[in-house]
Amino acid sequence: MRLIIGGAGQGKLSYALRTYKLTPTDVAENFSAAHTGRIFDRFHAAVRAALDAGENPQQLTEELLEANPDIIILCDEVGCGVIPVQPEERAWREAVGRLCCDLAEQAKTVERVFCGLPMRLK
């Protein structure tokens, strides 16, 4: 598994498609589709959807990595900025942050994309 993080609109998907020579048909945007996809884009949004549906995103992530250990996961950085007032927004940001820490520990590589430029973290 590879992890690519960065702010919204910073070019993570374009970078991943170009670097790994993939096409938009290789991209999944939810846990189910990511079991067979090459790239899991918008991981942060899938975590929100899982929480909203009463599902456990940690378990879904573990199942995903078991089913597709070579997946490339793209996630927006959501932990910076003003702390939200709503408890569910804080819980979502906390869940995404903790999952990204777990993913980074397990990942072959971790990169941060800023203004379309990759920075290798691991």
Q: State the oligomer.
A: single chain
Pattern of helices and strands? EHEHEHHEHEE
> How many beta-strand elements?
6
Which segments are poorly predicted (pLDDT under 50) over 5 or more consecutive residues? none
Structural class: alpha/beta
Inertia-based shape: globular
Description:
The protein has 122 residues and is α/β, with parallel strands linked by helices. Helix content is 43%, strand content 20%. It contains five helices and six strands, in the order βαβαβααβαββ. A six-stranded mixed beta sheet has the order 2-3-4-1-5-6, sandwiched between helices. It is globular. The two termini are 12 Å apart.
Write the layout of secondary structure elements.
Blueprint: E1 2-6, H1 12-19, E2 27-28, H2 31-34, E3 39-40, H3 43-52, H4 57-67, E4 72-76, H5 87-106, E5 109-114, E6 117-120
Parallel strand pairs: 1-4, 1-5, 2-3, 3-4
Antiparallel strand pairs: 5-6
List keywords for this structure.
single chain, 122 residues, alpha/beta, 6-stranded mixed β-sheet, 6 strands, 43% helix
Summed up:
This protein is an alpha/beta fold and 122 residues long.
